[in-house]
Design brief:
The protein is α/β, with parallel strands linked by helices and 495 residues long. Helices cover 53% and strands 11% of the residues. It contains 23 helices and eleven strands. The strands form four sheets. A five-stranded parallel β-sheet has the order 2-5-8-1-9, sandwiched between helices. Strands 3-4 form a two-stranded antiparallel ribbon. It is flat.
């Protein structure tokens, strides 16, 4: 048994990405910020390393939580999102400023773990649905054929002629019956059975013809009437000063157990009916207990919570007397980050090994303004650098789905081939950097506003343009944007 566990642990580390591979994948989408990528890559690799340790030591190894410090638009959220997508880990992004101290109306801090669990349940359920997709498709096809070409009544319930027959004669009378001098004629039961067999063959032959038409897609638009599960959920409104999250009552499941499932007839196209029936059949094939168990295991061992805007609760005291204490919010978050057990409708979830990545601009406050206990739970701190003109140029062209590629592809949908020259990209990057310097630094998000304003007239006129080939150069960029950039008051509102 121990030998197999060691093998599984080795496979876990072998299958996990190395830190260099993680950084390489992040480089496809995020420009620069090598230190931040390096830190999250190490933290992610340490998870796989922890699973190779003995069980008693696994519990002692705490996750290396990270605080990313940097102004908006430098890539903090994108690093966390791409990281979670890279390893297919349960991931949720929450904003610390939305949580309130216990006793106030607002979101309970434990709700972040409940939301993370819901995300994991959804992901595992999707995976299980894909695994049983073929079986669900076959079952849905049979049900669909039953709706399109129902079984004739004569074949639904075969009459049992023997039930109406007289009692069988005793054995000593068999010889006498066989010696009767007259012919009894054809057996009515045998004839009825033969007729039923012929009808059954005709039915099956026609059904197979409909099956072929279904698979060929010849019936996709034909309407069909199907029975769909339907349940009238009563409207319940609850007024609770602490929020319904604290009550931890799953009213939907409760009413599902009380009220019987009902069906209603719906007339829909065959294509839609197939989708509905496949979902119902997949639900039957999926073991929800196994889904819940797998999801909770993933949350506890590979879940990632991105805690944004943590600088908004970094103050030690509230600026207004009756307002919610920011230090109180920190103390409520502390047990979750420190490691506790959160009760969800799917069961208890331990947060001891969930990776927390906090982020904030920290313009007014600093990480040292957090309470000491919370600071100690974020041992890794990384400062993300502000973006310069060179970074903007790289963001426009280098990532896998760069902005320039996106806008060219959008114009291609209208049949327009657009070429954005290198000098135009230089000009866009320079204008974005200039506006960030003069108005407010919002990082790479400034590129979105610049590009949207640059292409505004082109997108509006695109369907009516006769010329289907357009070149966007530096002169075109200056003509569209230079006046807005020069006017500081105007650029504040438009860019």
């Amino acid at each position: 048994m121990e030998k197999s566990n060691v093998t599984d642990e080795k496979n876990t580390l072998t299958n996990a990405l190395t830190p260099q591979q993680i950084v390489g994948e992040l480089d496809k989408y995020i420009i620069g910020q090598f230190e931040a990528k390096r830190s999250v890559a190490i933290a992610l690799r340490n998870r796989a390393r922890r699973q190779m340790l003995a069980e008693d030591m696994q519990d002692e190894v705490a996750p290396k939580n990270i605080i990313m410090i940097g102004s908006t638009g430098v890539g903090k959220t994108e690093i966390a999102r791409r990281l979670a997508r890279l390893v297919e880990a349960p991931f949720i992004k929450v904003e610390a400023s939305k949580y309130t101290e216990i006793g106030y109306v607002g979101r309970d801090v434990e709700s972040m773990i409940r939301d993370l669990t819901e995300t994991a349940i959804s992901r595992v359920k999707t995976e299980q649905t894909e695994a049983v997709e073929e079986k669900a498709r076959e079952a849905a096809e049979e049900r669909l054929l039953d709706y399109i070409f129902p079984v004739p009544r004569s074949l639904q319930q075969r009459p049992r002629l023997q039930d109406d027959a007289l009692e069988e004669p005793e054995e000593e009378d068999d010889d006498e019956l066989l010696q009767l001098p007259f012919d009894l004629g054809p057996d009515p039961e045998a004839e009825a059975e033969e007729a039923r067999e012929k009808e059954r063959e005709r039915y099956l032959k026609t059904r197979e013809r409909f099956r072929d038409w279904l698979r060929e897609g010849r019936l996709e638009d034909k309407p069909v009437e199907i029975n769909v599960k339907h349940q009238n959920m009563p409207f319940v409104e609850i007024f609770s000063p602490g929020g319904i999250e604290e009550m931890d009552i799953n009213f939907k499941d409760m009413f599902n157990n009380i009220l019987p499932n009902q069906t209603k007839k719906r007339r829909v196209p065959v294509s839609e009916a197939r989708t509905i029936l496949m979902q119902e059949e997949a639900e039957k094939l999926i073991d929800m207990d196994a889904v819940i168990s797998e999801a909770i295991e993933r949350v506890e061992n590979s879940g990632i919570v991105f805690l944004d805007e943590i600088d908004k609760i970094a103050g030690r005291e509230s600026r207004h007397g009756p307002d919610v204490s920011r230090e109180g919010v920190q103390r409520d978050i502390l047990p979750i980050v420190e490691g506790s057990t959160v009760t969800t409708k799917y069961g208890a979830v331990r947060t001891h090994h969930i990776l927390f990545i906090a982020a904030g601009a920290f313009h007014v406050s600093s990480p040292s303004d957090l309470i000491p206990e919370l600071q100690g739970r974020f041992p890794i701190r990384v400062e993300l650098k502000s973006l310069n003109k060179s970074d903007f140029k790289s963001i426009l062209t280098e990532p896998k789905n760069a902005l320039v590629k996106q806008y060219v592809a959008l114009l291609q949908t209208e049949g327009i081939d657009a070429e954005i020259t290198d000098d135009a990209i230089d000009e866009i990057a320079a204008l974005a950097f200039q506006v960030n310097e003069s108005v407010e630094d919002i990082g790479a998000r400034r590129l979105h506003t610049i590009m949207e304003k640059l292409f505004e007239n082109l997108f509006f006129d695109a369907p009516d343009l006769e010329k289907k080939s357009i070149t966007i150069d530096a002169e075109y960029v200056r003509a569209e944007l230079s006046e807005i950039v020069k006017d500081q008051d105007l650029s504040r509102y438009i860019l």
